[in-house]
Amino acid sequence: MIPSLPPSRIEPPQQTDVVRLAAALLIAAIVIAALYLGQVVLIPLAVAFLISFALGPLVHWLVRHGLSRMLAVALTLAMVLTVLGGLGALVSVQVQSLGAQLPTYQSTIRTKIKDLGARMEGPGFLEGALETVDTVQKEVAEVVGGDENEVPPQRVRVIPEPVSPFRTAMLWLSPLLAPVATAGIVLVFVVLILLDQGDLRDRLLRILGGSIHRSTDALEEASKRISKYLLMQLVVNVTYAIPMALGLWAIGVPGWILWGTLAAVMRFIPYVGPILSAIFPLSLAFAVDPGWNMVLMTAALILALELVSNNVVEPLLYGSSTGLSVLSLIAAATFWTAIWGPVGLVLSTPLTVCLLVVGRYIPQLSILETLLGSGPALSRPTRIYQRLIANDPDDAIDIAEDAIEETSVTAFYNDEGMEVLRQASIDYINNARAEHRLRIANGMDELLEEIREEHPADLPPDAAPRVACIAGKWEIDRQACEMLAHSLALDGLPAVVRASGSITSRYVAGLELEGVQVVVLSFFSREPDAAARNLIRRLRARWPQPRIVLGLWGIPPEALDPQRHEALGADAVVASIKEATGRIALLTSEARKAEAGVAQDPQAAALRDETLRNVALDDPELREDLNDYALRAADVFDMKTAAIIAIGPAHELVIGASRDLPGPRTADGRNLVMLSPEAPLAARLLAEDGPLMIPDIERDPVLAQHDILRAWSARALAAAPMRQADGVVLGALFLIHDEVRELDDEELRLLETLAAEVAERMTGEKSAPLPEPERPAVSATVGQQVPD
Predict the structure, then answer these.
(1) Where is this region: Disordered (predicted)?
(2) For the whole model, what pTM was predicted?
(3) Over the stretch 128-184, which tens digit does the pLDDT of each residue have?
(4) Phi, psi at 469, each rounded to 5°
(5) HSE-up of 412 (CA within 13 Å, CB side)?
(6) What is the pLDDT of residues 467-518, one digit of tens each?
(7) Domains of the chain by range and CATH?
(8) DSSP, residue by residue, 691-738
(9) At what angle are helices 69-101 and 256-266 packed, to 10 degrees?
């Protein structure tokens, strides 16, 4: 009898997904209907929030300088209304002047139209078609008109009843009442939002619920991004409008202040605004000048300003950050215009930014970030892997070349190339068909061959191989060997690749390893121990001279036991191309010391030594403050140890720590832990532009042998340089943990901030400003620029 399964096992798993999809669609329909039906209330509220985002930074600045919030809000609104009123007065004067001059331009317009008509007269390729159309129109008129002798119908004139003056006034005023009422409501909302921002933020946090940390980050990011977007958009529009107004004045186009102001306002409308703002000055130039010089100069001015604004001013102000993809922005503009009309078009970008931030911080709505964000939806290794599956190696090569241009060949192999092979190894049995495996194998070989041709190694043609890379089992094992061999050749170590084969004594004897110093065995298998141990044993028996490095590429680095190589009989175990090149360089006695290539110039070293001599490291108050900084850093980042290390003339010194650290001490009475000159730590950051992050010290060939780090039970390490305002590095703030750990970019930037505070406390002077963070890559070159 077959046992019955529990009900939870019988129910199809797809049913839950269908219910969730239906619920999501129902909620989306309700939200869209509410947005459409409630636009009378929601539009003024959205405009008020938008204005408050723009005015909020000015209000905060006034409050920080001693004004009460009510006075700061009143002063801000008074300044804004004064500027708008003055600008409106100038525009009204321009409008009146143009209204008086427009009748004088009628003769110029008629002359130009007649001239264009005369030029279009005469035989042409459309003459026959036009005559045919005229003939058809005449025949239709005869059929419809009937008898020509019929009496034409008489016109009847309807005289309306006289309208009272009161009703006339109401007819004139009623179209103005709605906009004035809406403006009043918006002004009231703006005042209330600026006065009660704290209470409003608390209410939004209560509505969002969930993690208060995540909700706070979402509100903070949305506020910063929208405020900066509006400020930068205003600056861009003003820097466009002023040259445009001055250029129109120099050309002689009337109403130059009006058209400059119109350009500044209309450019807030995405896509359509710049086109609309250009129509009016071009039309007026057409009407004013009897010739065509003014029209051509006006068009050239607008084109030049657009090119400068789009390619110089906007990248300079926004940076290279892109928050929204152009496709999502166009779709959002279409959606909000359909829901709320022209106002929705103006609000589309800020509202879409809010949706993007919500999708980033609320896991249930992460689909919004995928749909709206400009960042690639797939990681670079996944994109390459997908192109190979789709039998499109050319596109995969293009993606690989872009990655190599950003970093290097070795970095591409380490970060992207090996990850492609890992994905292929995971899908080899579970998902991939034979056709897919063949495409990946052929496409990867083509990609690697292209990279070797584009980036050849500078080695003598007759250089004897010193490293042999042997594939363990699959084709992807051999391709990993190809990557490693090319990386070693670029570092000056000639290497040869040996294909996989059956692990027999005959196969091992035919490997020809004479003169080879290091043998690398490549395995992507999840359980390679048996095959690796057997192959290593046979290699040791036949070729005892070479050192053996075991590359276990398919196993997560944090899962590798530091003593695993001893159990398998290898000299070392590596998990990445970067680690393998470092280990092999050490085994071939060509490794550079950790301090090599990172020393500053003598002048910088002299400045650092002079600064540290003026720091009273024996001052108990300073020592206590430095220990407090280290304790705070360890607590904030949840690390086992935090240490502040200064770069002395002869030794590196631990001048602050969150706990007592073992190690040799100074003999001058200060009782500071002293690092060996042959094994420095802070000196590694001298040539670094930013912080250092090593998630697993066991995977670093040099630091894995560091005696001090072993004594401190260090497995993960992060550090940020303590840099003076003149750029000289005094030392570094280190975070050390006894387990594999990695900090994200925001955490590393926070670590840099703490290191800057330590430098200021030591020297009493302002530290160097932090470098701007790198902007995320975009999926297309036409992404909409939105500040971070």
Answers:
(1) 761-788
(2) 0.65
(3) 555 655 665 666 565 555 555 555 566 666 666 666 665 665 666 666 666 777 778
(4) -105, 120
(5) 24
(6) 888 888 788 888 888 899 899 888 888 888 877 766 666 677 667 777 788 8
(7) 457-591 (3.40.50.280), 602-763 (3.30.450.40)
(8) -EEES-GGGSTTGGG-HHHHHTT-SEEEEEEEEBTTS-EEEEEEEEES
(9) 130
